[in-house]
Amino acid sequence: MRVRAISSLSAMLMLLGAAGLGAASSVLAASATRTEPLVADLSKHGVAITTGFVGTEVVLFGATDGKGDVVVVVRGPGERAVVRRKDRIAGIWVNRRQMTFTGVPAFYAVAASGPLDDIVSPAVGARQEIGVEHLRLVAETGAPEAEVAAFRAALLRNKRRQGLYPAEVGKVTFLGSRLFRTEIKFPANVPTGEYEVSVYLLRDGQEVAGGGQKTPLEVSKVGVEGEVFDFAHRNSALYGIIAIVVALAAGWLAGIVFRKA
Amino acid sequence: MQIYLPIAEMSVSVFVLLGLGGAVGFLSGLFGVGGGFLMTPLLIFIGVPPPVAVATEANQLVAASVSGVLAHWRRANVDFKMGGVLLTGGFLGSSFGVWLYTELRAIGQLDLVITLSYVVFLGVIGSLMLAESVRAMLRRGRPGGAARKLHQHTWLHGLPLKMRFHKSRLYISAVPPLAVGFFAGLLAAIMGVGGGFVMVPAMIYLLGMPTVVVVGTSLFQIIFVTANVTFLQAVSNQTVDVILALLLLAGGVIGAQFGSRATGKLPAEQLRGLLGLVVIAVCAKLVVDLVTVPEHIYSLGRVAAP
Q1: Which residue has the higher pLDDT, A25 or B244?
Q2: What is the ipTM of this complex?
Q3: Looking at the predicted structure, is the pLDDT value of residue A241 above 80?
């Protein structure tokens, strides 16, 4: 009788223990799925270029699961860019040498919660192309290294001058230790297309597993200007004819309206 | 009030464009010449990309030429037959010009060719205007000269394809007008001008047409050539910004009306001399820019999808 009581007691204890372990582990599992290392979102997912467009701002906001550094990279669509260098020929300055680069982002901006050198290790910077110096721009040429470097530097300089590669690293501000936000500024000449906004959570210069997120952003012309642009590219011939007819009509009208000298 | 131009892809003040159109229109109405070659450099100066400036100015000139030719047509001062020959050459020249334009742009030498063309033509025109106004001011003191012959006959007139041009009272070969039209069309395509500043002197001195018919006939040809350039640029390069053109011509046609009305009231010779000086100054600036060490040795060319 006593043996059975002991065995059923121990069985009950084991069951309780198992239940307790099960409960504990499910609690742990629940808390692990509840807090992701990083979540982020944009205040709007499209930049609409309308009639009075003079540039705009998009807010990126989010939360981390604890203290860490946040870096945001905004990349425009990739394009092929031609860089030309002038030389003096017969007294005048003429475009002479040129080099074509592929994989050039149409727009590139970085924002961070601290100085990039401090919070991003060089390996991470190179892997994720954080910072213009890490951009993988491929030159279609067989020219020597030094020349390619000079043209590459010129490409970055010109993009910066056009306002498309802002020189300043934007600020990611933390509210408390987990909520963060940053303002992404777009200039009036922002190119259209599919942009990619990447957010990284870093600790001690290294990426935190599961702490990276990519969000798309579309920049497009809308409204009258968008229609005109699309029409000009899709129905070029008809667009040309309409442009001529409009001008003919306007000229005729002006001639008639002002007939009385 | 800013407006975003879809093809030029830039934001510009509406008033700047209306004012620009008005000012250039006034000058062209006053002097009968100088719509395109004043407007295109000014557009480039305010930041419109040169390809868009050239193509859009062609579009605007269609309207300006139509409004101008109506006044001449009402006074029966247009030689349509001569205009027809000129515009045939013009179609060929401007089509070739747009093709050449596209090729130059692809090899990155378009800006240079446009600048050199402007240097040559502004220099020549500026000097001619200055010389002509000085001569006119000197001549005013003296009584009128002896009656001149209708026109001189040169070897140009004896070339094949002779035709009768009744309005101009000419019986000459069609080859010189075809060539003049071709050359003017070529310039229209490359520089974004009407070509009148080449055709008017050529019509008077090379072809021997009576002055009173020259301006109207030249405007008639320009309508077709600029329409052709507009169409070809729209199809080949998609660089015609019709919204920019509309804003410019709104100011332009109004300015031109005031300009042509002011023609009698202002001292014409002095003004022509002044304009000649301004044109030479612009030409000199272009030369200086070509020769001095550029601020940016490296520049970005056209970008394309990878």
Answers
A1: B244
A2: 0.80
A3: yes
- CB B299 to CB A95 under 8 A? yes
Extract the runs of DSSP E, i.e. beta strands, from chain B.
2-5, 10-13, 162-165, 170-173, 298-300
How far apart are the C-alpha atoms of B222 and A98, rounded to whole Å? 37
* Structure letter (DSSP) for residue A172: P
* Touching A: B residues 89-128, CB under 8 Å: 108-109, 111-112
- Relative to beta strand A46-49, strand A206-221 is parallel
- What are the phi and psi torsion angles at A244 (to 5°)? -65, -45
| pLDDT tens digits, B50-64 | 888 889 999 988 888
Quote the pTM value.
Answer: 0.74
The rounded distance, in Å, linking the Cα atoms of B51 and B58 is 11
Cβ contacts of A46 within 8 Å, gap of 6 or more: A217, A218, A219, A220
Tokens found for residue B287: 């030369």
User: Given CB atoms, is A203 within the 8 Å cutoff of chain B?
Assistant: no
Pairwise CB contact (< 8 Å): A82 & B65: no
Q: What is the pLDDT of residues A23-80, one digit of tens each?
A: 555 555 444 455 788 999 999 999 988 877 888 999 999 999 888 899 999 999 999 9
* Total residue count of chain A as it appears in this document: 261
Q: How close are the terminal C-alpha atoms of chain A, in Å?
A: 128
Which residues does residue A83 pair with via DSSP β-bridges, in sequence order? A99, B300
